[in-house]
Specification:
Layout (H helix, E strand, L loop, with lengths): L1 H30 L2 E7 L2 H10 L1 H4 L3 E2 L4 H21 L6 E8 L2 E7 L5 E10 L1 H5 L3 H10 L11 H16 L7 E10 L4 E9 L6 E7 L8 H5 L10 H12 L4 E8 L9 E9 L3 E10 L3 E13 L4 E10 L2 E9 L6 E14 L2 E16 L2 E16 L5 E17 L8 E11 L9 E14 L3 E13 L30 E3 L2 E3 L3 E12 L4 E13 L8 E12 L2 E10 L4 E8 L4
Parallel strand pairs: 1-4, 5-7, 8-10
Antiparallel strand pairs: 1-2, 3-4, 6-7, 9-10, 11-12, 12-13, 13-14, 14-15, 15-16, 16-17, 17-18, 18-19, 19-20, 20-21, 21-24, 22-23, 24-25, 25-26, 26-27, 27-28
């Protein structure tokens, strides 16, 4: 028993000694005081200091025990503050620490006068200075575009941005190897003035050589060349190369595209244009579904082959089944030649709209030409058409027609236009000597204006007019006559319900006129509301033309495919309320 008691006493003594040791070991850490640092500085510099000075960003600080560590901490903070203020143009600041309260320091900053630009000297060397396009006038325009003029505050970020912008402007056209040969900012802290000097060496003027294409495996070797509008010997223009890259990327042939040149001055006389491509999968099959109040529910099956017969031809074919219209189509698009692109195809279509059953079989060919934002099309079409108006007489016709279309899309966004306009003209018809029952000529025009209002709101004006010049509408295909009504037309009336009465059906007439005014208010980036008024009619003579009016309200949602519209419209003449649903793009 005594031995056990002695061992127990020794155990208690050892435990007490261990506890004392642990307490002593922990004592220095527990003795460290928390430290707070408060900033006193003008609002002009407070934000940048609070964002970047490490001593001000840390939520939990411990006061160093050693005096030397405290001095080192304040020295680092002063250096940080001085360097930050220098980037903002303050080169003579007063920075001090008030450490009277050991646990609550005060960092007081007086930035002093802000340095302003007193002089700017911009020089050019290289071909641009000797024989550059535009001569001295162009050099003066470059100097005038300088982004940090005399009188502006000096900031390091603005100084770097101005140099980069000037170099970018010079190197974007002709002078691909341009570089900054000299860059100097002389700061006088006593007068708070800065003198800037920049010298740009343009190097030689670059001219385009031949295309060098990499990555083609299954597509024809000349396919990229057929898409190109770059001409050997033309001056280098970065925007043209980027436009070429975008055009290639938008084709179904390629998964990725890079177009660039090597900025080697020794190649400037005829620099090769390097085109690196990755081929996309050539075949694609898809299925889609949708709904429109014009033609009802829709399901579509499509198939595409972007390398038909290994010639780079594009085959696009599909079956579209809607409640009121069905179509089977196949089109083949040939690779472009410069600005022109040819295509040909066949179509079988059947529709039953407003009591008019139309069955069409057609083959045709089209040439499309793109010049900037202007697209033109010349189309030839041979078609056989059967029309059966409810309560009227069925008729058939064979016609060979030609149609020319001119469209200018001067808008800021093709999918979601909010500023700009669209203008379209069409002229087409068929002669009696080429299968038609009579000579006819169709004229059509359309205009849409998008006007931004109060930030994101948009005011939309739309108008269209058409006339088919012929003795009567007999034997003229419905595509060359006019019906209207429905979404994107005269809302408040059924789709294509405004036209000429034939029995119990509505058929196309020889005259058309519609107009619309719409205001869209976007209260959220993706959601908006609209109010509108539409008016128009289609008739077989000017005497029968009777203007129909519809007005109402709607909702808008910005989807990836463009703004979707749900409109509730009142047809004034019919005294009826109708719901319209569709894509709100007049393209």
């Amino acid at each position: 028993m005594r031995g056990l008691a002695q061992r127990s006493s020794r155990t208690r003594s050892l435990g007490a000694a261990l506890a004392v040791g642990l307490a002593l070991a922990a004592a220095p850490a527990a003795a460290q005081q928390a430290l707070t640092v408060r900033l006193e500085a003008p609002d002009t510099v407070r934000e940048v200091l609070e964002e970047h000075v490490r001593l001000l960003k840390r939520d939990a600080l411990a006061l160093p025990e050693a005096q030397a560590d405290r001095v080192a901490m304040t020295r680092r903070a002063r250096r940080e503050v001085a360097e930050l203020l220098a980037t903002e143009g303050y080169f003579s600041p007063r920075i001090r620490f008030d450490r009277e309260d050991p646990a609550n320091w005060v960092l007081a900053v007086e930035p002093g006068p802000r340095t302003e630009i007193a002089a700017v000297e911009i020089d050019f060397t290289g071909d641009l200075a000797v024989s550059g396009e535009g001569g001295k006038e162009y050099l003066e325009l470059l100097r005038a575009s300088w982004g940090l003029p005399v009188g502006q505050p000096f900031r390091q970020a603005a100084w770097d941005a101005a140099k980069a912008a000037l170099l970018d402007t010079v190197s974007a056209h002709r002078y691909a190897a341009a570089r900054i040969a000299e860059s100097r900012a002389e700061i006088d802290p006593e007068t708070a003035q800065a003198r800037l000097k920049v010298r740009i060496d343009s190097g030689p003027a670059f001219y385009l050589g031949e295309l060098e294409v990499e990555g083609l495996e299954h597509l024809p070797a000349d396919l990229v060349l057929r898409y190109s509008q770059l001409r050997p010997g033309a001056p280098y223009d970065r925007e043209q190369l980027l436009a070429f890259q975008t055009d290639l990327q938008n084709t179904p042939h390629f998964g990725s595209v890079i177009v660039d040149i090597e900025r080697d001055p020794t190649l400037a006389a005829a620099v090769p244009v390097r085109v690196q491509v990755t081929e996309a999968l050539p075949r694609y099959a898809g299925i889609g579904a949708g709904y429109s109040t014009n033609t009802g529910a829709r399901v579509e099956f499509s198939y595409r082959d972007s390398n038909l017969r290994k010639r780079g031809w594009e085959l696009s074919t599909g079956l579209r089944v809607e409640q009121r219209r069905q179509a089977l189509y196949a089109d083949i698009f040939l690779p472009p030649r410069g600005k022109h692109r040819d295509s040909f195809g066949a179509l079988v279509e059947s529709s039953d709209l407003e009591g008019l059953q139309v069955d069409t079989q057609a083959v045709g060919a089209t040439r499309t030409t793109l010049r900037g934002d202007i697209e033109t099309q010349l189309a030839l079409r041979l078609q056989y058409e059967t029309i059966e108006p409810a309560g009227g007489e069925a008729r058939t016709s064979n016609t060979l027609t030609a149609n020319w279309t001119w469209i200018k899309r001067a808008v800021n966004d093709l999918l979601d236009p909010t500023d700009g306009y669209l203008l379209e003209y069409q002229i087409g018809g068929g002669p009696k000597i080429a299968l038609a029952e009579q000579d006819f000529l169709r004229l059509y025009s359309r205009f849409v204006r998008y006007q931004p209002v109060r930030g994101s709101d948009v005011f939309i004006l739309r108008g269209e007019a058409g006339v088919t010049l012929a003795e009567s509408r007999d034997g003229i295909p419905q595509d060359f006559l006019f019906r209207t009504g429905g979404a994107q037309s005269v809302r408040g009336y059924d789709y294509q319900s405004l036209g000429v009465k034939d029995g119990n059906a509505t058929v196309g007439g020889r005259y058309l006129a519609t107009a619309s005014a719409e205001y869209v208010h976007w209260f959220e980036p993706q959601w908006g509301t609209a109010v509108f008024i539409d008016a128009g009619d289609a008739a077989d003579s000017r005497e029968d033309f009777d203007l129909r009016v519809g007005y109402g309200v709607g909702a808008r949602w910005r989807s990836p495919a463009g703004p979707l519209a749900i409109d509730l419209a009142w047809g004034h003449q019919e005294r009826s309320l109708r719901l319209h649903f569709g894509v709100a793009i007049a393209f």
